Amino acid sequence: MKVIVVGCGGVGSALALQLFTKGHQVTVIDRNETAFNNLSLAFKGHTITGDILTHNVWQRAEVENADALAAVTGADSVNALAAHIARTEFNVPKVAARNINPRQLPLLEAFDNPVVAAASWEAQRMGDLLTGEIIG
User: How many Å apart are CA 113 and CA 108, to the nearest integer?
Assistant: First the structure.
C-alpha cells in the first residue's frame, strides 16, 4: 500500500516507521526539513520538504497513486484541509486527520473524514485504566 504521512513530529515519525516496517511504501511530508530527524534510522521511505497546501508538493508525493493519507501535523486546520483535499481532489481512498485541540474537533468533523482525537482517546484510555475496566 502507498501511504502519505503529512507531518513528521512524534506521531508522524512513529506512524511512518510502523507502516514502513509492515512493508508499505511510505512518503512523509513536512514543511520543516529538520523534522525528518524524528524518523528512525530504520525508516527507508521517501521524504518531501514542503507545504502540503501547495500543488507542487502533492505532485512530488505522487498523490494520484496513493492508497491512504494520514494528516498528523500540529495544526488541526491543516490536517482537516489536507485530508479533505486528498479525498475530494485526488480520490485517495483512505484518509484520516489528527485532532489536537478539542475545540477544533467540529471543524475536522465537518469535512466528514475519519478523525483521531487525541484528547478524547487519551481521556477514555486513562479513565479505563483508573477504573480497572481495561488492564494493561
Answer: 7
What is the SS3 string spanning 37-94? Answer: HHCCCCCCCEEEECCCCCHHHHHHCCHHHCCEEEECCCCHHHHHHHHHHHHHCCCCCE
Of residues 123 and 38, more confidence is placed in: 38
Q: For the whole model, what pTM was predicted?
A: 0.91
What is the rounded CA–CA span in Å between residue 90 and residue 63? 7
Q: Which pLDDT belongs to residue 135? A: 56
Contact call for residues 47 and 27 (beta carbons, < 8 A): yes
Which element (helix H / strand E) includes 21? helix 10-21
Place of cell 511512518: 16
Enumerate domains of the chain plus CATH numbers: 2-131 (3.40.50.720)
Cα dihedral: 7, 86, 45, 22 (round 10): 100
